[in-house]
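Most newcomers find our protein records easier to grasp once they have seen one. Nothing more is needed to start thinking about how sequence determines fold. Here is such a record, shown just as it appears in the course material:
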Amino acid sequence: MDVHRAFAQVAILDDGKVVSEQRLDLVQDKVLAFGRSLRPDDEVVLEATGNTAAIERLLRPFVARVVIANPRMVRAIAYARVKTDKIDAITLARLQASGFLPEVWAADEDTVRRRRQAAERMGLLEETVRLKSRIHAILHANLVPKYKGALFGAAGQRWLAKTVLPDHDRLILNRLIDELRHTSEQLAVLDQELASLALADERAVRLMTIPGVGPIVAAMVLSSIGDISRFESPQKLASYFGLTPKVRQSGEGPPRHGRISKQGNANVRKMLVEAAWSAQTAPGPLRAFFTRISAKRGAATAIVATARKLAVLIWHILAKGEEYVFARPAFHAMKLRKVALKAGAPREYGKAGPGRDYWIKEIRHREMEYVKRAEDAYARMAEAWRQVPPNARKKTC
């Protein structure tokens, strides 16, 4: 099936021959009717696109398999001299019949739901940034001095209400403020849902033992990964997020490494970079790693490398079902308590809560000293490794 927005071109192969071709309107009733016309031992091939998940869900009960093809790797279609919907559909069928079709994982219902929520949150976040930028643009155009403080907090809103502006700009500003308030409320509701999901998911709770990883980052990472067993190694997961460098090599020449590929889910990649900025401020090996790369390549390169390191840690934690070895228990308990409050848990006054240990100075400092020793140990190891001659490093490896 060569899938488009409103229809799909269908080619049916039997024993290597095209026995039927048709155009199928992508409406639920017609897709279900088409599924009933298929045999239980048939295989259906789709290209990964925006509505593939819905088609896969409707056809799955009627056939043996629904295969989703990787569009980036179906070169026979991408580089064909003659390219039509009919030819594309036949090519997909023949590639599957010959066993050369590059597949992608078909997400389950829970993962699809998580991905929808993650995409909705990113949309609301982008809308929030857009509205704030337009408000700043109106103030700048009217030579209004920059507000010293949180412009979109309570005090900033009162300051905005008193700002002298032309009538037409005041009307636009008021409308933008109303839109921003509405969007922020929707974002808060969605964040509450994601926080509840994170607390109920053991994988997310373990991921939050990593510095810089909160409920939103954990939820978005899990929605993108789905089943961790489909990634054979941490390098595969980092590559899936587009955090590994491009490699070019031909003939007898040495391989050349370029910038990161930026393939895969761009939203999750951005979230991992943001998490890396937070992680590099906390004591521990991650901060030592960032400091080492930053001194050599600069902060911009170092933060991307730290994000890749986070992807590697995420793979190990999910694949092995363990917590981050340098986690701080009291800090993690306090973090979970904040997530529970965001999820709507009631505040309890007058008795010690699960995160009370973090507010005990001795416990907090003892944990920080432990991870600081790990940070110092990593720095010493990296310095000792740097002093080893390059030829000796190869022999050691």
Q: What stands out?
A: The CA atoms of residues 223 and 345 lie 24 Å apart. The chain has a mean pLDDT of 90. The first strand starts at residue 2 and ends at 3.
